[in-house]
Amino acid sequence: MATEPGISLTTSARARGWLRYLHRKAFTPDNWNKGGQPLEWWDDRSTPPMLNFCRFDLLDSSYAVALMADKTPAWREVCAGILDQLVMRHTTYHSAIDWLTQIGHDPKRASYPEEYRGLIPAEHWGNYDAPGWTANGIEPWGLQMDPVGADGNLFYKGFFLLILGLHRYVSGDDKWNQPFDMVRDGDNTFTWSYSGIAEHLASQWRAHPEGCHCENTKIWPYCLSGAGLGLMMHDVLFGTTHHEVFDTWWEHALKNYMAFTPDGVPEWVALYYDPIIDHVHSGGPMGGVPMALYLAPQRRDVAYRFYDLAANVLGLRAPERQIPVLPDRRGNVLAHALAAEFGDSVAKARLDELAERALEPTWSGSEFTWGFGLNELHPRGQMNATMMVGEAGGEGAWWRLFNEPNLKKFDQPTVVGVDFPTVGMSEAHYDETAHTLSLTTDVGDGAAKGRPTWFRVQNIRDPQHCRVTCDGSEFANWWTLPGGEIQIATDVNVHAFRIVEEA
Asked: CB under 8 Å to 491, separation ≥6 — which residues?
């Protein structure tokens, strides 16, 4: 695996601790179907009124998982399993509960709290649905219960497409490209597939180059940027050209949804556009910052401008200024993720210091999360996941997922059968030039240290002609299995294995 100098091929202890936490969270059964209830640790509290739905925890968690899998491309089974659980929950009633239950105009819109004023056109205050209220059933679309097939609800199908793509990219499994049922509420049961959603979204977007609606009747550059990234990954995996609709929309967006000074500094960026009342609702000069993570693989120069403005406003590079802990910690964790992605080492170091001091890094046994000073029973999922993007990624890591994807990994030696979370892998990559698989095991359960454990390696060119070392010494406790695999017997501990294909 050829890598650029400075690109890490190991995961940090904290990233592995968070992965163990998320693994437990994802594989603990709960019921997201109608009549059921997601467990309380799925975050439906962050950033109301737009993002306080459990599905955004699914979405945000998928990013760091994919980044971790890209650092250990020869060991992906745990990340793939978690992503599969995230996708599964996204097919449920509770995933689309806003679209299925927020029918017509919001009956509370005449009594919104004052803090909503900045989200609503001033002349329509008291008679306008706040962002986050989906308003299924109003004109121009009417009632459309299919959350994917609907003309609106772009943010649902676009972000779902992104999770589906990350699962397929990590796992290589075509499971979700077979027809599957969604919502599963009697007549409100709808059948889709990964590629079917991509084709449908691209077709809708092609018919509306100004952008598809999210809530009826709002067009959000933020959500369209995420949807574009979902289409980009589908093109990467299947050679389609769906992302062309984003390229066309972007030219429209530059003219209608944002403006820059002659020096390229953002002047304003649209929060949303309502074509029914022809109103562009400005999010001010910082309005593009939430888009930056989605734009980084697609329009990296503009994404950096949005980040750079935020870095200057928040004083991320100014040692004489104290970085504020924002009331909505999403701003802090997004800055952390973007500083890592853009290689802003000064800002990243200062944000790391802030996190140590004020964001409550917490170990619970072998699991790691941040508490964010919120004094809550369960760690905020959306914020933890975004914080982990900065921890698990690095300069250009998110960009490389979509622009320099590692698709050779599916044909290269791959580790399976690891007894996770008792054992993990902090390193797992294959050097195709040296024909060498490098693995480093990780202890997930300290109480199990020293106990016997096993794992297998698939896709070895000739299992009869391998040489295995452990911690620099020849290692003999391995054998071949039917089907071209080898099995390695070891103990629960930190060990560095090298498996060399000598044929």
From this structure: 449, 450, 451, 452, 453
Beta-strand relationship, 266-274 and 258-260: antiparallel
Q: Is 264 left (phi over 0), alpha (psi -120 to 50) or beta?
A: left
Amino acid in position 69: A
Sole residue written with tokens 């046994």: 365
Residue 257 DSSP SS3: coil
Distance of alpha carbon 391 from alpha carbon 407, whole angstroms: 23
Amino acid at position 46, single letter:
S
Name the residue among 89, 46, 71, 48 with its Cα closest to residue 427.
71
- Mean pLDDT across 21-41: 98
What's the whole-number mean pLDDT along residues 448-468? Answer: 96
Strands 367-370 and 361-364: antiparallel
Burial annotation 108-129 (CB, 10 A radius, 16+ → b, else e):
ebeebeeebeebbeeeeeeebb
pLDDT exceeds cutoff 70 at 239 = yes
413 pLDDT exceeds 70?
Answer: yes
Residues 368-380: pLDDT tens digits? 999 999 999 999 9
CB atoms within 10 A of CB 318: 14
Of 7-11, 73-77, 267-271, 364-368, the range with the lowest mean pLDDT is 7-11
Residues contacting 126, CB < 8 A, separation 6+? 109, 110, 112
For 141, phi and psi rounded to 5 degrees? Answer: -100, -30
pLDDT attached to residue 133: 98
Burial level of 170, CB count in 10 A (0-12/13-18/19+)? buried
| Direct distance between the N- and C-terminal alpha carbons of the chain, in angstroms, rounded to an integer | 19
Cβ-based neighbours of 316, under 8 Å, separated by 6 or more: 310, 323, 335, 339, 344, 346, 347, 350, 351
In sequence order, what E strands does 325-463 have?
A: 361-364, 367-370, 414-416, 423-431, 436-443, 452-458
